[in-house]
Amino acid sequence: MNESVKKQVPSSAAPALEVNKTSVSFGKFKALDKADLKVMPGEMVALIGASGSGKSTLLRTIDGLQLADAGSGRIEIFGRKLQRDGRFAKGLRFRRRDIGFIFQSFNLVGRLSLFSNVLIGCLGRIPTWRGFFGVFPNEDRIRAMAALERVGVAEFAGRRTSKLSGGQMQRAAIARALVQRARMVLADEPIASLDPVSARKVMALLQELNERDGLTVVVSLHQVDYAMRYCRRVVALKSGKIIYDGPPNGLDSKTLIKIYGDEYEDAFWTAEAAQ
Fold first, then answer.
1. pTM score > 0.85 for this model?
2. Mean pLDDT in the chain?
3. CATH topology for the 3-274 domain
C-alpha cells in the first residue's frame, strides 16, 4: 500500500470489504466456494486465476449483481451489510453507491455522448425524477467534465460513445466512478480487450485513484505481469476457492503451477518478465 495512504488509514479502521464463507452455485457448478476475503481501506488488490476460477463471480457478488447461495456467509463494505445467508440487505441500492464497478465490456450506452455516460454515475445520489428526465445538477455536470479531463478524454465529451476506442471507453468508465464518488472500485478484467498501451494507461489510472485519492481498488486480471507491477497484494482463485493471498513476489513457479495448472508456463514467464 502506498505510504501516503497508510497514514490516512488508522490501524483500527474497519475493513473496506469483508467476504465471509461466501459461496455461489449455478446448478451443480460451484463458481465460488466458501470464499473469505478482507480488504482494508486504501489497498489495491489484484485477483488472478484461470478462466472460470471465480474472479468475476466474486466481484459481481460483492457488488450485489449476484446473490450468494442460501445460507451462505456474509458480505460487508465499510462495515455495512450488503448480503447475508443468501439474502440482500435492505437499502442495497444506497449501499452500492460507494462501489464503482468497471466492466470488461465497458457497460456504456453507445448512442449517448461520452459526457452523458459519465453523468450516469450520479444516478445513485440524485432524486429518481432527475435521472429519468436527465436534469442533472450543475455541480454534477462540472464534476463530470473534471473527471473526463482527469482521465484524458475531455476532448471527446460530446462524441457518441460508440465512435470511441476501447481504451477511451474504459477511461470514461473510470471517470464515471469518479463522478459517482465511489469509495471502492471493483474492476472486472478492465484491460482484457485493450492494446498494451491502453492497458497501461488504464492500470496507471486505477493506481492513481488508489494512491492519490485513497480509493480501495480490487481488480481482476488475466495478466500476471500487470498484477505484479501495479498491485501490492495478489489474491488467486482456483475452482472458486482462494488458494493464494500475499505479495506479488510470492508468485514463484510452484505457486503459479498450483494456480494455473497446465497453463502455468505462460503465466510464469510473463510474471518473471515483470520482476
1. yes
2. 87
3. Rossmann fold (3.40.50)
173-219 pLDDT, tens digit per residue, is 999 999 989 999 999 999 988 999 999 999 999 999 999 999 999 99
The domain limits of the chain are 3-274
- Where does the chain show beta strands of DSSP type E? 17-26, 29-39, 44-48, 74-77, 80-84, 87-88, 99-102, 184-188, 216-220, 233-238, 241-246
100 φ/ψ angles, rounded to the nearest 5 degrees? -100, 125
Q: Are 114 and 158 in contact (CB under 8 A)?
A: yes
CA distance 225 to 231: 10
Work out the burial of residue 131: count CB atoms within 10 Å of its CB; fewer than 13 is exposed, 13-18 middle, 19 or more buried: middle
Question: Three-class SS of residue 193?
Answer: coil
Give tens-digit pLDDT for 45-99.
999 999 899 999 999 999 999 999 998 889 999 999 999 999 998 888 778 889 9
Q: What is the β-pairing status of strands 80-84 and 87-88?
A: antiparallel
- Strands, sheet with 44-48, edge to edge from the N-terminal-most edge strand: 99-102, 184-188, 216-220, 44-48, 233-238, 241-246
The grid coordinates of residue 52 equal 472460470
Q: What share of the chain is helix, strand, coil (3-state, %, to 5)?
A: 45, 25, 30
